[in-house]
């Protein structure tokens, strides 16, 4: 159906930046909208951002608004998450998601999830 593979995670210092990529394959025409969730140790997955096919509709969680930017390149079947001004509390496994059924900010709405990429922000 749809496969999502994240990349770009790593270790950065607080205040630094990192850009995550999510490459989609398979029936990617069905993988819309696409977005990102993150899961910190001991916590449930948390909505981060989501973007529609055209980019005309974008939602961010309050915790990342103004610091993170989601974008996509449909020709490359890729969604990006530019993370700026990173904080230690941003440390989590970041997962790419696609094709929600209902609320775009609800983790249960998504049928497609990538394996995730680790982002660690040191203080």
Notes on the structure:
With 123 residues, the protein is mainly beta. Helix content is 0%, strand content 53%. It is built from no helices and 11 strands. Strands 2, 4, 5, 6, 9, 10 and 11 form a 7-stranded mixed beta sheet that branches. A 4-stranded antiparallel beta sheet has the order 1-3-8-7, with no helix packed on it. The N and C termini lie far apart (40 Å).
List the helices and strands and how they pair.
Blueprint: E1 2-7, E2 10-13, E3 18-26, E4 34-39, E5 46-51, E6 58-60, E7 68-73, E8 78-83, E9 92-100, E10 110-113, E11 117-122
Structural class: mainly beta
Between the first and last Cα atoms, what is the distance in angstroms? 40 Å
Residue ranges: pLDDT <50 for 5 or more in a row? none
In sequence order, what are the helices and strands, one letter per element?
Answer: EEEEEEEEEEE
Tell me the radius of gyration: 13 Å
Strand content: over 45%
Number of helices: 0
Total number of beta strands: 11
Subunit organisation of the chains: single chain
Overall, the morphology is globular
The pLDDT mean sits at: 95
Share in helix: under 10%
Largest sheet: 7 strands, mixed
Quick recap of the structure?
It is built from no helices and eleven strands. The chain is mainly beta and 123 residues long.
Structural key phrases:
mainly beta; four-stranded antiparallel sheet
